[in-house]
Amino acid sequence: MPRPVVAVKNDFPPSHELAPHTHRRGQLLYAASGVVVASTPAGAWVAPPERAVWIPAGTAHAVRMVGAVSTRSVMVDTSVATTLGNECRVLGVSPLLRSLLVEACELPREYDLDGRDGQLMTLLVAELARAPVIPLSVPFPTAPAIARKCHAFLESPAPHDTIEQWSHALGMGRRAFTRAFRRETGMSFGEWRQQACLLVALPRLAAGQPVTAIALDLGYESPAAFSTMFKRLLGMAPSQYRN
Fold first, then answer.
1. For the CA atoms of 110, 113, 119, 120, what is the dihedral angle to 10 degrees?
2. Three-state DSSP state, 58
3. Per the count of CB atoms within 10 A, which of 51, 109, 225, 239 is most buried?
4. Are 194 and 154 within 8 A, CB to CB?
5. What count of other Cβ atoms lies within 10 Å of the Cβ of residue 42?
6. Who's near 52: CB < 8 A, 6+ residues apart?
7. CA 235 to CA 231: how far, in whole Å?
8. Under 8 Å between Cβ of 139 and 42
């Protein structure tokens, strides 16, 4: 389309998955309802309705829907996406940005660049540039052995795993493992472990599953321990978030 920003809306059934693909433009993937989980070889990002995932142009990514999902996405040409970064990230969606995304999807594809529609898109890009980055990501290492451990953790989270257990399993010394893990992920092992548990928990909360069941499945000794971790990272209790 001969426009710098194009808005697209789609509806997906529960548990629908989009196979790995790329876009020529950068994509802001926003779920007006439901939860989306975007994954790339470098990591995974989860976006409930008050969040959105920024995916730079040319980045291969797969998307998994949690629940019935209705998306309002914008495809941004690289000429106007310079302030949005070259790495995937989760952005906070303010009420204004949400309204702009919804309204943008109602515009004609070849909207008037010099009229009200063009001004709306300009404001949308400006709001994207100032949207806060939210720590809802789990980066994957490039080192194959550590990456396999990380992927296995997401399949079966164990919040009490220790550095000693991982370094021993990988045949590494504690100090060498901690240095390699931070170099590969940009996070400490403890920070990554908590983020990974959060990534698994958010879609389950959005699907309406009980907090107690999620906490116990994730290996927490009690719902209170899980709630403490959750509130520290997201600023609210799991029950509040689910509601």
1. 10
2. coil
3. 51
4. no
5. 17
6. 28, 29, 30, 31, 90, 91, 93, 101, 131
7. 5
8. yes
